[in-house]
Design a protein that fits this description.
This protein folds into two domains: about 30 residues, no CATH class; about 55 residues, no CATH class. Helix content is about 30%, strand content about 0%. It is built from four helices and no strands. The radius of gyration is 17 Å and the shape is extended. The model has no long low-confidence stretch (mean pLDDT about 80).
């Protein structure tokens, strides 16, 4: 969105290095994914444990056994976590 008008990100995000030449390649193009946080905590309560799945990307395809362990551990640390709401983002955001 620029000046109230929806425009393609490759037209307005000129300070970043996005690969416009890959825009038509679903395996290699850049994706922008909205995030709706169900719960947040102060930095001093952040969950950071050895053995948890981690990736520097905001979104990634989980393919390692660490992924399932990480999800189960986070569910313990965030007891208000609502699995249905997390998997059905349309119901969470109203989209």
């Amino acid at each position: 969105m620029e000046n109230g008008e929806a425009r393609p990100v490759l037209e307005v995000a000129t300070r970043a290095n996005y690969h416009a030449e890959l825009a038509d390649d679903p395996e290699r193009c850049d994706y922008f994914v909205p995030v709706h946080w169900l719960q947040s905590v102060p930095v001093n309560q952040a969950v950071r444990e050895i053995g948890m799945f981690g990736n520097q990307n905001t979104v990634c395809r989980p393919t390692t056994p660490k992924w399932r362990w990480t999800i189960e551990r986070l569910k313990q640390r965030f007891p208000r976590f609502d699995y249905v709401a997390a998997t059905d983002i349309a119901s969470v955001t109203g989209n």
